[in-house]
């Protein structure tokens, strides 16, 4: 429910109510309940909505019909075999944190130092990473000193913790030489481990709105914290170069037909915070007259500040979701939810623990052996020696396993494609009753060399922007090589698990007839593997140059977003493409900051929810200090 009071002025107006915004607004409101704060959010309220708070239902938010998700259509790109991808992000209060897969993953400490921005190094940000969480995973060997114990976001293994499949997967990883560690999320871990979750021990999603905002609104002690929902921000309003307010309109896709759709303005007495996420914040800035002067003039937008970096430096992690047939049971995958087999109301009544599960139980941060580096050619070797060799905590590849059939983030999204692969896979599966469940192994490149961009095409806030993902577009094809290597590596691991029940040719590369790398059908050991050594007896697969080409084609045909967009309003020197300074102020303006993942200048070796929470915490400290508050 919106609690906006028309005609009222607010001290701070947030343009976008996603992850980072909820953290900053919540912290500031808690520090000074007299501070008046308005959050304008394009999507619905997420309060106590079971589609959001119930982890096992997270898939439902990826459907094209989801009212909680925003879908950004990119252009067709040659590096993607001519495909035009769709990048999805959160479109509801809490933003990405309300719909994400809840996989707990923290950046490496070295990533923060690599931002090269004063006040944003690991010494500054690790304390905030601890402050935001209450970590209750009690596995032996975890160093609790690197985790928090009293923050709003609860991290646990959740109520549905399947030890046997987890240990099976880790033993297979160990058998091919991948280090198995107790805690990959200690800011320097490399290898593989079980995956903690943004889920409370009782099984509730830990999104930023429920953990930072709703408790304050409910307690009656924060009457100045207000929400304006289902409302789209058009632009920031200026007096000269001073931001003085925000122009907004009802979100057309959600507003009743007969409602008043005229744009309105709200005044901000102290600060406007643009916080609409990596794919929307640059558009708001450009519509407000902040961006490359040539672009703005071509659209008749008066220039407030000429900042060519706005909308540039777009990055994501490039992902492959590779499905395998498994021997897992109905309770050990979420296929039962994806296929509508689980009686959800009954499961709630029975307090079925599967509802509190995201199915992401194993994570990885991998590096390469010298032989693997050399096998990818001289250009790759040169890049590896330059960027990875002396950075021992920097992973080349990330992994997250999802126990369900998911052959790509857009497979459930892209209506025109109506994913034939999935239909074929399900048809095969229906015939093959012995292996009716799947696991999808998500591989994604943490530090892509490729860059994309997003820019407005019109002053009209509802006109789609021009989005170029840039995926796999780097000059020497280094990003594609990483995924070719990763495909082989995870194949080597997963076929050594007891869960492995064979591959589905339709969602794997098209190896030529007679290739030694051809598909394996059933489990490799009929009676299952025992020890790690047992698994080592399986010989490695052999690939020739035709096989490598087939995998590269497969990668270009199937690579997708990992939903980890960042970088389009980057922090850093203005003359080097920076949009905001170290205190998140937009260059050439006063009273205007950006607070979301768009400010992150260099990529991180992790899924990005944690970094978005840290941006929110850091912004609260910065703004609090400017207002004389202790946050
Ligand atoms: C499907 C999905 C799965 C993910 N899985 C994981 C995971 O398992 N683990 C992990 O660590 N990370 C994951 N992530 C990434 C993580 O959730 C995001 O990186 C993070 O939430 C981004 O936070 P943000 O504050 O930058 O932006 P967001 O949280 O996206 O917030 C932006 C907000 O602005 C609103 N908005 C946009 N335009 C306007 C406008 N014009 N006016 C008003 N409001 C507007 C949006 O509705 C949204 O609420 C996932 C993300 C997605 C989308």
* CATH homology group of the domain at 66-93 and 153-202 and 316-500 and 532-558: Glucose Oxidase, domain 3
What is the highest CATH level, the class of the domain at 66-93 and 153-202 and 316-500 and 532-558? Alpha Beta
Identify the overall geometry.
Answer: globular
Structural Rg:
24 Å
CATH topology of the domain at 66-93 and 153-202 and 316-500 and 532-558: Glucose Oxidase, domain 3
* Ligand catalogue: flavin-adenine dinucleotide
Q: Kindly state the percentage of residues in helix.
A: 25-40%
Derived from helix and strand composition plus strand pairing, the structural class reads alpha/beta
Number of helices: 18
For the largest beta-sheet, the strand count, sense and barrel status come to: 7 strands, mixed
Extract low-pLDDT stretches: 408-420, 431-435
Overall pLDDT, averaged? 93
InterPro entries: FAD/NAD-bd_sf, GMC_OxRdtase, GMC_OxRdtase_N, GMC_OxRtase_C
Domain Glucose-methanol-choline oxidoreductase N-terminal: 277-291
Family: Belongs to the GMC oxidoreductase family.
Cofactor: FAD
Commentary on this structure:
This protein has helices at residues 19-31, 50-53, 96-99, 109-114, 122-131, 163-175, 208-218, 281-287, 293-298, 335-338, 344-349, 370-375, 378-387, 420-431, 478-494, 532-536, 545-558, 609-626, and strands at residues 10-15, 37-40, 69-76, 84-90, 133-135, 153-155, 191-194, 225-228, 231-239, 242-250, 264-274, 290-291, 305-306, 318-326, 360-366, 397-402, 437-445, 453-455, 466-468, 500-503, 592-594. It is an alpha/beta fold. It starts with 9 loop residues before the first strand and ends in a 5-residue tail after the last helix. 56% of the residues are buried. The strands form six sheets. Strands 1, 2, 8, 9, 10, 11 and 21 form a seven-stranded mixed beta sheet that branches. Strands 7-15-16-17-14-20 form a six-stranded antiparallel beta sheet, with helices on one face. Strands 3-4 form a two-stranded antiparallel sheet. 26% of the residues lie in helices and 18% in strands. The structure holds flavin-adenine dinucleotide (FAD). The site of flavin-adenine dinucleotide has 41 residues, from helix 1, strand 4, helix 3, strand 9 and helix 18.
């Amino acid at each position: 429910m919106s609690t906006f009071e028309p005609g009222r002025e607010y001290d701070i107006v947030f343009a976008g109510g996603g992850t980072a915004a909820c953290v900053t607004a919540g912290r500031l409101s808690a520090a000074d309940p007299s501070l008046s704060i308005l959050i304008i959010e394009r999507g619905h309220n997420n309060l106590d909505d079971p589609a959001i708070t119930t982890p096992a239902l997270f898939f439902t938010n990826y459907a094209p019909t989801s009212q909680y998700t925003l879908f950004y259509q990119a252009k067709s790109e040659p590096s993607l075999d001519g495909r035009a991808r769709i990048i999805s992000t959160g479109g509801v209060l809490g933003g990405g944190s309300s719909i994400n897969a809840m996989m707990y993953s923290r950046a490496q400490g070295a990533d923060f130092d690599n931002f090269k921005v004063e006040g944003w190094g690991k010494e500054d940000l690790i304390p905030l990473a601890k402050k935001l969480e209450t970590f209750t995973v009690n596995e032996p060997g975890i160093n609790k000193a690197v985790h928090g114990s009293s923050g709003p976001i609860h991290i646990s293994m959740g109520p549905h913790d399947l030890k046997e499949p987890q240990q099976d997967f880790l033993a297979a990883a160990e058998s091919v030489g991948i280090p198995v560690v107790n805690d990959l999320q200690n800011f320097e871990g490399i290898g593989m481990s079980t995956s903690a979750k943004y889920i409370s021990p009782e099984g509730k999603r830990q999104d930023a709105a429920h953990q930072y905002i709703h408790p304050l609104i409910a307690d009656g002690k924060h009457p100045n914290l207000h929400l304006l929902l289902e409302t789209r921000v058009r632009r920031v309003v200026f007096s000269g170069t001073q931001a003085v307010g925000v122009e907004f309109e009802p979100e057309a896709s959600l507003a009743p037909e007969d409602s008043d759709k005229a744009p309105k303005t709200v005044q901000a007495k102290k600060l406007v915070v643009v916080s609409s996420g990596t794919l929307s914040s640059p558009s708001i800035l450009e519509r407000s007259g902040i961006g490359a002067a040539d672009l703005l003039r071509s659209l008749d937008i008066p220039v407030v500040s000429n900042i060519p970096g706005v909308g540039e430096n777009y990055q994501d992690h490039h992902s492959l979701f590779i499905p395998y047939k498994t021997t897992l049971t109905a309770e050990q995958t979420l296929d039962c939810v994806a296929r509508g087999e689980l009686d959800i109301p009954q499961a709630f009544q029975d307090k079925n623990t599967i509802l509190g599960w995201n199915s992401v139980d194993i994570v990885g941060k991998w590096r390469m052996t010298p032989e693997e580096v050399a096998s990818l050619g001289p250009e790759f070797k040169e890049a590896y020696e330059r960027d990875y060799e002396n950075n021992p905590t920097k992973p080349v590849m990330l992994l997250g396993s999802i126990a369900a059939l998911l052959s790509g983030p857009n497979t459930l999204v892209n209506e025109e494609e109506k994913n034939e692969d999935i239909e074929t896979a399900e048809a095969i599966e229906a015939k093959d009753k012995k292996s009716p469940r799947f696991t999808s192994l998500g591989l994604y490149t943490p530090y892509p060399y490729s860059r994309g961009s997003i820019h407005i095409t019109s002053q009209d806030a509802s006109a789609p922007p021009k989005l170029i993902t840039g995926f796999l577009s780097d000059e020497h094809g280094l990003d594609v090589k990483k995924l070719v290597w990763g495909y082989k590596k995870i194949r080597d691991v997963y076929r050594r698990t007891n869960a492995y029940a064979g591959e589905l040719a339709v969602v794997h590369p098209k190896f030529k007839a007679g290739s030694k790398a051809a598909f394996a059908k059933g489990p490799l050991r009929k009676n299952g593997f025992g020890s790690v050594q047992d698994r080592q007896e399986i010989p490695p697969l052999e690939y020739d140059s035709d096989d490598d080409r087939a995998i590269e084609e497969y990668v270009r045909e199937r690579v997708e977003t990992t939903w980890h967009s960042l970088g389009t309003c980057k922090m850093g020197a203005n003359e080097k493409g920076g949009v905001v300074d170290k205190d998140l102020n937009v260059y050439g303006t006063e009273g205007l900051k950006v607070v979301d993942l768009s400010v992150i200048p260099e990529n991180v070796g992790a899924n990005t929810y944690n970094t978005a929470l840290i941006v929110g915490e850091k912004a609260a400290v910065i703004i609090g200090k400017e207002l004389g508050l202790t946050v």
